[in-house]
Automatic annotation (TrEMBL):
Pfam families: His_Phos_1
Upper lineage: Bacteria, Bacillati, Actinomycetota, Actinomycetes, Micrococcales
Name this polypeptide is given: Histidine phosphatase family protein
PANTHER family per record: BROAD-SPECIFICITY PHOSPHATASE YOR283W-RELATED, HISTIDINE PHOSPHATASE FAMILY PROTEIN-RELATED
Entry's Gene Ontology molecular function annotations: phosphatase activity
Keyword Ligase included in the entry's annotation: no
Organism: Subtercola boreus
Length: 201
């Protein structure tokens, strides 16, 4: 069995302003760096073998802070762990998004939730198969984690009142060809599985 702790990167100035980042490479702010230190402290006491990260700098710096605090090697970048592409909506706040692209209007260049889920699920399955029996920290993004959690729970989580907070940890395990959600932000959940080969629409 391989264990994967999915960590959302620390805060950026765009997070604070509620601007859509997507693939735009926005760095951590000082609050985000402090959050990374706090996350590392929560992960102490468990054996970890490696840290992997999205290549975007907000995730990479979070991963570097965590790896250094836990005495682990330099994080390895995985291109398919990047945040959802929001296309023309990147840089907008959510009010502007809804004004310019009301419900039913396609945002040019924006990845669908399904596309994100398929991309990231395949990446995590590949990572798990490359690291059998290991415990891994995977630093990525809110949209990435949300897509996986939503699929694993049949849309039950995250609920409308739940956020994938900066620095939060969500635990998955891989065994028998399945990636299972074990904990949502530290809360145990039923063993709900994402099959190794999800159906393509």
């Amino acid at each position: 069995m391989t264990f994967l702790a999915l960590v959302r990167h620390g805060q950026t100035d765009w997070n604070l302003a509620r601007r859509i980042q997507g693939n735009t490479d926005i760095p951590l702010n000082d609050t985000g760096r402090a959050q990374a230190v706090e996350t590392a402290a929560r992960l102490v006491g468990t054996r970890w073998d490696a840290v992997l990260t999205s290549p975007l700098s907000r995730a990479r710096e979070t991963a570097e802070i965590i790896a250094a605090a836990l005495g682990l090697p330099e994080p390895t970048s995985e291109a398919d762990l990047v945040e959802r592409r929001y296309g023309d909506a990147e840089g907008m706040d959510y009010q502007e998004l809804h004004e310019r692209f009301p419900a039913g209007i396609v945002v040019p260049g924006r990845e669908t939730h399904r596309e994100v889920q398929l991309r990231v699920h395949a990446a995590l399955i590949g990572i798990a198969r490359q690291h059998p029996g290991q415990s891994l920290i995977v630093v990525c993004h809110g949209g990435v984690i949300s897509s996986l959690v939503r699929h694993a729970t049949g849309g039950g989580r995250p609920r409308a009142d739940e956020r994938i907070a900066n620095g939060s940890v969500h635990s998955f395990s891989y065994t028998g060809g399945e990636l299972r959600l074990d904990e949502f932000n530290g809360e145990p959940v039923n063993q709900l599985a994402l099959q190794a080969a999800p159906e393509v629409p």
